[in-house]
């Protein structure tokens, strides 16, 4: 769309692990902390999918395949947003949200949630700006 924004990224840093939005395979198997609670161990849930790209016809399987990975690996990075303020050379953590708390930052979701059929989700329903003509 040609838009530009000055963004900061946590890519290739330990930040996402520090805030429990990224987990290692071992943490995932043991049950990791996310959204202020401990998740159940996932080794039994994902065992059949390990090593496979994607994960079938499910939405999460399609998303994983689009990212070139399998479902367990796809789930090792989760939604999260944090805000910070720099004042007097000190960095203050002012806000964090996880899971569905990130939805308000995707402007249209709140409008869709109020539509008669909600998001009416079936599979992967969004497209990147250069993929609309393909569907």
Tell me what the structure shows.
The protein is an alpha+beta fold. It has one domain (15-127). It is 23% helix and 16% strand. The chain is built from six helices and four strands, in the order H-H-E-E-H-H-H-E-E-H. It has helices at residues 15-18, 25-30, 43-46, 59-66, 71-74, 109-113; strands spanning 33-34, 37-38, 80-87, 90-98. It has a two-stranded antiparallel ribbon. A hairpin with a 2-residue loop joins strand 1 and strand 2 (37-38). The longest helix is centred in the middle third of the chain and has 8 residues, at 59-66. It is globular and about 50 Å long.
Secondary structure layout plus pairing:
Layout: H1 15-18, H2 25-30, E1 33-34, E2 37-38, H3 43-46, H4 59-66, H5 71-74, E3 80-87, E4 90-98, H6 109-113
Antiparallel strand pairs: 1-2, 3-4
What can be said about this structure in brief?
The chain is of the alpha+beta class. Helices cover 23% and strands 16% of the residues.
Helix/strand order = HHEEHHHEEH
Q: Shape, please?
A: globular
The fraction of residues assigned to DSSP E strands is 15-25%
Mean pLDDT: 77
What is the total domain count? Answer: 1
The biggest beta sheet is recorded as: 2 strands, antiparallel
| Helix content, binned percent | 10-25%
Distance between the ends: 18 Å
Structural class: alpha+beta
Number of helices: 6
**Strand numbers in spatial order across the main sheet:** 1-2
Count of strand segments:
4
Radius of gyration: 17 Å
Spans of 5+ residues with little confidence (pLDDT < 50)? Answer: 48-54
């Amino acid at each position: 769309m040609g838009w530009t924004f000055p963004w900061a990224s946590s890519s290739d840093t330990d930040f996402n692990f520090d805030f429990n939005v990224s987990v290692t395979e071992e943490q995932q198997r043991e049950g990791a902390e996310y959204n202020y609670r401990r998740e159940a161990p996932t080794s039994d849930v994902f065992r059949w999918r390990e090593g496979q790209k994607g994960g079938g016809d499910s939405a999460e399987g399609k998303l994983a395949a689009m990212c070139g990975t399998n479902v367990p690996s796809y789930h090792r990075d989760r939604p999260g947003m944090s805000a910070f303020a720099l004042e007097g050379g000190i960095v203050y953590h002012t806000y964090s949200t996880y899971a569905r708390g990130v939805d308000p930052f995707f402007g249209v979701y709140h409008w869709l949630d109020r539509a008669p059929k909600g998001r009416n989700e079936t599979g992967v329903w969004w497209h990147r700006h250069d993929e609309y003509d393909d569907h």
